[in-house]
Amino acid sequence: MAIIAEALPTLNLTPTQIQNLTRFKRPAKLLTGLDSVVDGLGGRLRRLRQGLKELRQDAEKIDAMAGEWQTMPDGRLRERLHEFRDHFRRNPEPSNEVVLSALAAVREAAGRQTGMRPYLVQLMGTLALHRGFLAEMATGEGKTLTAACAAVLAGWTRRPCHIVTVNDYLVQRDAEWLGPLYRFAGVRVGCVTGPMDPEARRQGYAADVTYTTSKELLADFLRDRLRLGELQNPTRRLLRQLIQNRAQPAQGLVLRGLHTALIDEADSVLIDEAVTPLIISIPRENPILHEAVMVAHEMASHMQPGEDYTVNWRYREIELTEAGRARIEEGCSRLPGFWRNNERREELIKQALSARELFRPGKEYLVVDGKIMIVDEFTGRVMPNRTWREGMHQAIEAKENLPVSSPSETAARMSFQRFFRCFYRLSGMTGTAREAAAEFWQIYRLPLITIPTNRPCIRQQLPDRIFPTEEQKWQAIAETVEAIHRTGRPLLVGTRSVTASEHLSVLLQARGLNHRVLNAARHQEEAQIIAEAGERGKITIATNMAGRGTDIKLAAGVAELGGLFVIATERHESGRVDRQLFGRAGRQGDPGTAQAFVSLEDELLRRFIAAPLKQAVQRMAATGAPGWEKVASALIGQAQRSAQRLAFHQRRGVLKTDTWLEEALSFTGQD
After folding, report:
1. What pTM value is reported for the model?
2. DSSP characters for 86-123?
3. Extended beta strands in 193-275, E state
4. What percent of the chain has pLDDT over 70?
5. Would you give the DSSP letter of residue 447?
6. Coil, helix or strand for 16?
């Protein structure tokens, strides 16, 4: 996936300011083999040396100071916070006693400015973030406020502090909601989202604390390095300015360096989204490719699945049969140029077939105003200005009978694994991290620590309901929604694609059930839909847009009815994503229920379970064989494990490419 580069305006800056603008940590080389094993043991020892006991003791010390701050007038509290700010500015690494006193003051300010006073477990989470841990906090435990308290401490130092979350909606929501706390504490807060122009981005990054997404932050980092060109070294830039006495090329930068990053939903940002590196591309006219894409599309339209090609769903690849190759050779016999080269023409045809079979409207992309808009599989949101590389985007445009755009070439590339190792201070939080604890430590040096819940979770997790066919599954979902709706309980139904959400919407309309749909094609009223989702009798259908970070508050009287009922319409490749959706119910001790509906025709099983095995279970289901549901459930678990192994190997492939590029660029004198 690539991002189109854009020109940046210039701004007058001093040499010292420019040096700080480009300051970041050089990532250390990752350990391998036995060194990696020994290092993993070191990560576990660090967790044991500073565990929950010490965090709880320090949190209780903060809680014991509450009386001193609760009686203090607003004016005096603000003065004391500004005194702490000045202390942190002079000494960015203060003593533990100063940190605890400062957090006691921040806690009181949070209660007054946001109406939410951090609980003891949130104070433990704040301390964990401040000390460089990955805090595993259950969904609904107030991670947003926890991060804000830690960010106040980091913002006081005036060093760049970025709070990285998963989508633009949460970026804007959190920056606005917590703005009063930051301003009261003497901290400037800003945000950076996709639609912003370069000047707005520069202003957002100029704040002490900046909310943004990983994609926007890394894209701006790469754009700044492109702007610098060969003068990425600050000393070299200063010498050039002194010798040539001309304006610095760094005057158009938007970032002011990298220092502290607090990662919200860290497993999504650092693990799931790290499968693909971020690439900055520049459009280049290529009339030959334009013509080739159209010819390949025409030839592919005459090819039949099963006869001319097969689809490998597991690896999302097209495999040509001998009959397909013969058909291609016959069709290309009268074409000129590279069409006579077997490898190149087969690559073009496979690309056209992939566009037809593997890239589906409503799932991988939407057509908006005559343009292909990629849908982020993790957030369920459209990603403007993103394109697929190597002609795939053009192949999809040809499939949709749209004007074929110019292809692009890579101008800059970086993986998220390497980028987040460029921060001097890194910490994070999520509700689902334990499965990837070793990977967090090995790659990011983040030791995992689990924070207890404030109140016991009483969410009821019902067993999966499994069906032989998708049609049976959808009918059962519609019947369940109707039955639960009669009780007055609100429902949140999670789907994996726009197409699935629209299909369910049609089924509910046929039953006369009023509902709201939240997906990439219907996102304009997102805040209002989420705000109303916990009201009595509300039915909300949502893609992954409502899977992470969204706080659905129960209206009066809903808890007595049983709370929010969450339905997952299929299982995801990662069980962590399923748990995030289920975590919308039963937050902060509220009642709630969650259940998944699965069919043997779902994409997860189609991709990761061998066809003969799946067909055998389908025959068991068709005959009503005893225990077929247990066998199917085991199959689903196996499919998720296979999907996670594949994703892990993909991330390792990205890391290997990183290592190769680092060694190659070091050899040529670049970085």
Report:
1. 0.85
2. HHHHH-SS--HHHHHHHHHHHHHHHHHHHS-PPPHHHH
3. 209-213, 260-264
4. 89
5. -
6. helix
> Domain locations in the chain?
54-248+259-279+422-450, 287-406, 460-599
C-alpha neighbours within 13 Å on the C-beta side of residue 327: 17
**SS3 state of residue 611:** helix
- Measured distance CA(311)–CA(446) in Å, rounded: 39
| Contact between 138 and 458 (Cβ < 8 Å) | no
3-state secondary structure (DSSP) of residue 480: helix
**Distance of alpha carbon 155 from alpha carbon 161, whole angstroms:** 6
Token output for 263: 């990662």
CATH class of the structural domain 54-248+259-279+422-450 = alpha beta
* 592-599 vs 209-213, strand pairing mode: unpaired
Under a CB-based contact definition with an 8 Å cutoff, are residues 5 and 278 in contact?
A: no
Please tell me whether residue 367 adopts helix, strand or coil conformation. strand
Region 319-338 average pLDDT? 84
> How far is 643 from 653, CA to CA, in rounded Å?
15
The 3-state DSSP class for residue 137 equals: coil
pLDDT for 343-400, tens place per residue?
Answer: 888 888 999 999 999 998 988 898 988 899 988 877 777 787 788 877 889 999 999 9
Beta strands (DSSP E) in 415-510 are 425-430, 448-450, 460-461, 465-467, 491-494
Q: Is 387 exposed, middle or buried (0-12, 13-18, 19+ CB in 10 A)?
A: buried
Secondary structure (3-state) at 362: coil
Compute the CA torsion angle 268, 270, 275, 281 (nearest 10 deg).
100
Please tell me if the domain spanning 287-406 has the same topology as the one spanning 460-599. no
Do 55 and 121 form a contact (C-beta atoms < 8 A)?
no
Query: If residue 606 lies in a helix (H) or strand (E), which one and from where to where?
Result: helix 603-608
Query: What is the assigned CATH class of domain 460-599?
Result: alpha beta
Question: Can you read off the two tokens belonging to residue 296?
Answer: 């390949």
Q: Return the exposure string of 252-264: e unless at least 16 CB atoms fall within 10 Å of the residue's CB, then b.
A: bbbbbbbbbbbbb
Which amino acid would we find at residue 304?
A: Q
Amino acid identity at 407 = P
Calpha distance 293→286 (Å, rounded):
11
For 287-406, which CATH class? Answer: alpha beta
Q: Residue 165: enclosing H or E segment and its boundaries?
A: strand 161-165
Residue 629: half-sphere exposure toward Cβ, Cα within 13 Å? 7
What one-character DSSP code corresponds to residue 28? P
